[in-house]
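Service request form, structural biology core

Requester: graduate student, group of Dr. S.
Request type: structure prediction, single chain
Budget code: on file
Notes: please return the result as structure tokens.

Sequence provided:
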Amino acid sequence: MMKRISIYTIAVLLTALNFGCTKERMAIAYPSSGTYGENILALSNNSILNNVDGYSLSAELGKKAELKIVFINLSSPITESPEAVWFYGEGDGWIVGDYAGNSQQFESNKDGELDLDIIFENGPGSCRVDFYENSSSISNSKTFSW
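Core staff response, request fulfilled:
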């Protein structure tokens, strides 16, 4: 009887330990700033982007974490500038897709620290940022204007 309880206890502890490690390996954090300035991913929803020097697109990923960020240009040619758009520069840890239609995808290609220089120009404009955190479904969305 004692051996069964011990084996059961060990199995439960190993399962709990494995779950904790998996959760840590899948963790994603958004620091308040990065190499290029304030981190747009850490800003609150409906923030106004008025820093002419630009922003960082920054995240810290656990060893098994995956992150995809999709920017969707919501700028209306009727109420906002039709040329309102973002530009990106130097960075590390992101695969950047082409701007197609009204959107652009930024996908992590490593774990650890990711950072990219991004700037918003030709305002007024607005965009939605969709977060895909360890998933093929949207886990969070934020809207910004400039």
